[in-house]
Design a protein that fits this description.
By secondary structure, the chain is α/β, with parallel strands linked by helices. The protein has helices spanning 17-33, 49-59, 69-73, 89-98, 113-128, 143-153, 185-188, 192-208, 329-346, 354-373, and strands spanning 7-13, 38-45, 63-65, 79-82, 102-106, 133-136, 160-168, 212-220, 225-227, 233-235, 241-248, 253-259, 268-275, 278-283, 289-294, 305-308, 377-378.
Length: 388
């Protein structure tokens, strides 16, 4: 299989939850967005020949291999999409960039700041050669979230005072839920903090345009051991929940909560920003809605109002359905692919960059350090001009 001018061959590493989501996005992006480069789903890499082959057939990939390093040598692969556990991100991404392949890497960028620094340095070296990279924080591409970012950038909220964000799940409430790689710090880096907390950290920085400068944190592992599938138990070495406060570079106060133990909450991501002139609020369980309060209006009639973010003028929405025909979780990944393909074609830097991923990694590290020490912990800041 070969690619032709105007096409971009994609190699996917990993075919579980995120691999399925990314596959759906690669299939949908060309028909709906008509990007300047057409993605070709060339090859899927997985550890088991049987499972990888079955996944490739089911998800629409032309071929399957059992070693991701094969993707580095293939002429029909120009971009490598990394959907594997965090302990493999650095090795795959650095090798791909050095081989001249564009890279899309799922969040969090890495398991440690040191790995993220190495990945960001590799991305900068590759950038000089026209090779692009992006980290996959898909919730930036929810139309309502992007609209909130645009409104804040336009000054609609005035001076920002508060940011509060939550990501609540309950899939580990049962103490008999089995041990998986997500319970192992060596594989996952952290627990709820890196898995879902990374999302709300990135969203807070993206929506406000301000980095966190310091944090004070608590974390807890409620179930210290979990059963193994084949018998026995294994020690849980990550957090089950993390709670922290912070301050942004613009002086806003921020609070964050990430947990897998909020019984009844399946995938509840919420963010609210309050400013001197108004507020915005978003809840992923009402993904097509943004709530907006204009504090400059007459108090007699002012209040939060619901904005249905499905108009053609809204971010991304015009590529899909008529107004009121709502979008879902899977569309955020399609938007991500559309932006990445456009950036590669234009020779511009896609966002969020590996440097943005590194900044989130530094916040995660500061939260872990603060939870262990009980002290306010500064967050190392990026170079001047590298803002979210």
């Amino acid at each position: 299989m070969t690619t032709t001018p105007g096409e971009l061959g994609i190699g996917l590493v990993g075919h579980a939850f995120m691999g399925r989501a990314h596959s759906q996005a690669w299939r949908a992006v060309a028909p709906f967005f008509g990007p300047p480069l057409t993605p070709v789903m060339a090859v899927l890499a997985g550890r088991s020949a049987g499972r990888a082959g079955a996944a490739a057939r089911r998800l629409g990939w032309a071929a399957a291999v059992t070693d991701w390093k094969d993707l580095l040598r293939r002429d029909d692969v120009q971009l490598i999409d990394i959907c594997t556990p965090g302990d493999t991100h650095a090795e795959i991404a650095v090798a791909a960039l050095e081989a001249g392949k564009h890279v899309l890497c799922e969040k969090p960028l890495a398991n440690t700041v040191e790995e993220a620094v190495a990945m960001t340095a590799a991305a900068e070296r590759a950038r000089v050669r026209g090779v692009r990279s992006m980290v996959g924080f898909n919730y930036r591409r929810v139309p309502a979230v992007t609209l909130a970012r645009d409104m804040i950038a336009q000054g609609r909220l005035g001076t920002l005072r508060h940011v509060r964000a939550q990501y609540l799940q309950d899939w580990l409430v049962d103490p008999d839920a089995p041990f998986t790689w997500r319970s192992d710090r060596d594989r996952a880096g952290s627990g709820a903090l890196g898995d879902i907390g990374a999302h709300i950290i990135d969203l807070a920085q993206f929506v406000t345009g301000q980095h966190l400068t310091g944090v004070s944190a608590l974390s807890e592992t409620f179930v210290p051991e979990r059963p193994l599938p084949d018998g026995g138990t294994a020690r849980v070495t990550v957090d089950d929940a993390a709670l922290f406060i912070g301050r942004t570079g613009g002086g806003a106060l921020a609070s964050f909560e990430a947990t897998r133990f909020a019984a009844g909450r399946k995938n509840s991501l919420r963010i609210e920003v309050n400013g001197s002139a108004g507020s915005v609020a978003f809840d992923l369980e009402s993904l097509n809605e943004l709530w907006f309060h204009d504090h400059t209006e007459d108090p007699a009639t002012a209040g939060f109002r619901r904005v249905l973010v499905t108009e053609p003028v809204h971010p991304y929405a015009g590529a899909w359905w008529p107004p009121g025909h709502v979008l879902g979780y899977e569309h955020t990944f399609t938007h991500q692919m559309a932006d990445l393909l456009a950036a590669i074609a234009e020779g511009s830097d896609p966002a969020p960059s590996f440097a943005d991923g590194l900044q989130v990694q530094r916040v995660l590290a500061a939260v872990q350090a603060s939870a262990e020490s009980g002290a306010w912990t500064p967050v190392e800041q990026p170079a001047e001009g590298n803002q979210p």
